[in-house]
């Protein structure tokens, strides 16, 4: 039997250590994801780590370090397809990026375990868990900070609501005011709001604009030109 010629106790124990290490560490990473009720949870992260360890260990046993390095390169690229499966786009929001990145890290843990570097695999697991847990309060604190126009790169729009007969002249006037304020306009759109109102929207060229400048502009449009509804808003870039 070929099994008897290929089986060697010490290499087998080496493989066993790699598999068990990948299983334990992948489970630790997946447990945190499972607790957060993420798409890729405990079993997925454990299997990713074990699979990466198995491929790297197999390459190392059959072809040595050079072959295992080639397999690691394939693991790095191949795990991207699995990660893409947990990323979902809902309107303007994208979900699952953190979970996909965690899967990528689980594969790295497994590849390191498959390369017999147990201490390094444990270290990476600790760092991944720290990134997913200890950084969470910092992320929440940053998200609660109000956006300030001059501190973010964004696309700005200025909108006025006018009578249909005044849409053309008021649109030209809006563009003139923006250009005089050195705020170049990328496009000007108009949309009917019922039978008696038209919404004219000027989209600015992407830039950084202090909030107070746009506040002053819309206030001027309302006071001086008698526009009943003048607002501005920004949408941040990904």
Automatic annotation (TrEMBL):
A GO cellular component annotation in the UniProt record: plasma membrane
InterPro entries (UniProt xref): MgtC-like_C, MgtC/SapB/SrpB/YhiD_fam, MgtC_SapB_SrpB_YhiD_N
Domain MgtC-like C-terminal: 156-232
Keywords per UniProt: Cell inner membrane, Cell membrane, Membrane, Methyltransferase, Transferase, Transmembrane, Transmembrane helix
Membrane topology term: Multi-pass membrane protein
GO biological process: methylation
Subcellular location: Cell inner membrane; Cell membrane
This protein's record includes keyword RNA-binding: no
Primary location: membrane
MF annotations from Gene Ontology: methyltransferase activity
Residue span(s) of domain MgtC/SapB/SrpB/YhiD N-terminal: 20-139
Regions that span the bilayer: 6-28, 40-59, 71-88
Family: Belongs to the MgtC/SapB family.
UniProt function note: Virulence factor required for growth in low Mg(2+) medium and for intramacrophage survival. May be involved in regulating membrane potential by activating Na(+)/K(+)-ATPase.
Listed name of the protein: Protein MgtC
Provenance organism: Sphingomonas taxi
Source lineage: Bacteria, Pseudomonadati, Pseudomonadota, Alphaproteobacteria, Sphingomonadales
């Amino acid at each position: 039997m070929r099994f008897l010629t290929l089986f060697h106790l010490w290499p087998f124990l080496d493989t066993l250590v790699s598999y068990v290490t990948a299983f334990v560490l992948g489970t630790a990473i997946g447990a945190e994801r499972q607790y957060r009720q993420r798409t890729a949870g405990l079993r997925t992260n454990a299997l990713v780590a074990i699979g990466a360890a198995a491929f790297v260990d197999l390459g190392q046993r059959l072809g040595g370090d050079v072959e295992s390095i080639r397999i690691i390169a394939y693991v790095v690229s191949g795990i991207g397809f699995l990660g893409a499966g947990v990323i979902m786009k809902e309107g303007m929001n994208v979900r699952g990026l953190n979970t996909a990145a965690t899967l990528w890290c689980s594969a790295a843990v497994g590849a390191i375990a498959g390369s017999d570097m147990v201490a390094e695999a444990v270290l990476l697991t600790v760092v991944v868990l720290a990134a997913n847990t200890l950084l969470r309060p910092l992320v929440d604190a940053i998200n609660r900070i109000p956006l300030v126009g001059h501190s973010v790169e964004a696309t700005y729009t200025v909108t006025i609501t006018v009578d249909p007969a005044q849409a053309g002249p008021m649109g030209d006037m809006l563009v003139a005011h923006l250009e005089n304020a050195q705020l170049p306009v990328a496009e000007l759109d108009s949309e009917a709001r019922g039978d008696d109102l038209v919404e004219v929207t000027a989209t600015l060229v992407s830039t950084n604009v202090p909030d107070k400048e746009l506040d002053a502009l819309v206030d001027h449009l309302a006071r001086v030109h008698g526009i009943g509804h003048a607002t501005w808003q920004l949408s941040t870039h990904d």
